[in-house]
Amino acid sequence: MREALAEETSDPLSNRSGGLFVDVPLWVWGATVGVILLMLAVDYVGHVRSPHEPTLRESSWWSAGYVGIALVFGVLVWAVWGSTYGAEYFAGYVTEKSLSVDNLFVFVLIMASFRVPRLYQQKVLLIGITIALVLRTAFIFVGAAMIENLSWIFYIFGGFLIYTAWTQIRAGAQDEDEYHENRVLRWTRRVFPTTDDYVGDKMVVRRDGTRFITPMLIVMIAIGTADIIFAVDSIPAIFGLTQETYLVFTANAFSLLGLRQLFFLIDGLLDKLVYLSYGLGVILGFIGIKLLIHALHTNEVAFINGGEHVTVVPEIGTWVSLGVIVGTLAVTTVLSLRRTRRDEAASALAASRAATHGLAADPDEGGAEGRP
């Protein structure tokens, strides 16, 4: 099979072996990493170096630019490698982007808990995104190596995603709105002297010959430890959609880039996405099932069907996956906004009734309420 694929094309970008883009030239990897680093540098030098609160217009333009770059890259993948890999990239990008938006909820809780001044939130977010990019890159190459050498790892990934889906749905039902410090943070506070207040955007200061860490560094540690958990969740999810290391890396990178601008753009909208956890739970559960089916099709575990492949249930195709992901997010968004509007209308009506001692009319009752 590999020989046949190699004979089909002389383009080294198109050769595929063992489920990985092993023949992607180093210059392609180098150019891709260079573009990503350039985009990060633009953020660091052009925006964060001079602390300011971005306007809605600024956030809108930059968010659109980052999404546009990700879409253009997807079109290039489609043109060079074909529709299958193009669809895999877009499915991975949409999934990772939606998970990244969910991560913003945690970032909001962290920054609210530590009372990060609005002026310095850009820096916190960008450093958090950089940490996430580094961690996810490491996880991606570890995951790729495991997939290449351990066929049974798909069972682990699939089971883990189904469990994660359940925790997402349960988290949505609990409506958690407080951030609880983890052990790393508590240990940091206990071991290192810490200032009570922010000192500009500095992370370490010297006072009376003693070095102190500031709340800014504590926030960075909180974001970084949260990023580890996010990486553990997101990497198995995208490997359930594509096993192409290059696509996994680029979909993750482009989903993270622009997240800072997106935060300021949809800051007020985050609270309106009340059903996002349920939607992500459905997506992660779907991908988990997809991984388990793939594991059965490539089964080599001796105590499952004697180590033979199990092909009773057909594998789920890329286009079906993309449709389920986009459809679930669309339904989740529409239902969330409808629920929010209904709740806001109910709150406004209750406030109106309270202001008029219960004599306000319900618009749905044609003004009949309150009449003799």
UniProtKB/TrEMBL annotation:
Residues 348-372 are annotated as: Disordered. Keywords: Membrane, Transmembrane, Transmembrane helix. It is a multi-pass membrane protein. It is found in: Membrane. Residues 348-361 have a biased composition (Low complexity). The chain crosses the membrane at residues 26-48, 60-81, 101-117, 124-146, 152-169, 212-239, 245-266, 273-296, 316-337. Residues 362-372 have a biased composition (Acidic residues). Coiled coil: none annotated. Belongs to the TerC family. This is Tellurium resistance protein TerC. The gene is terC_2.
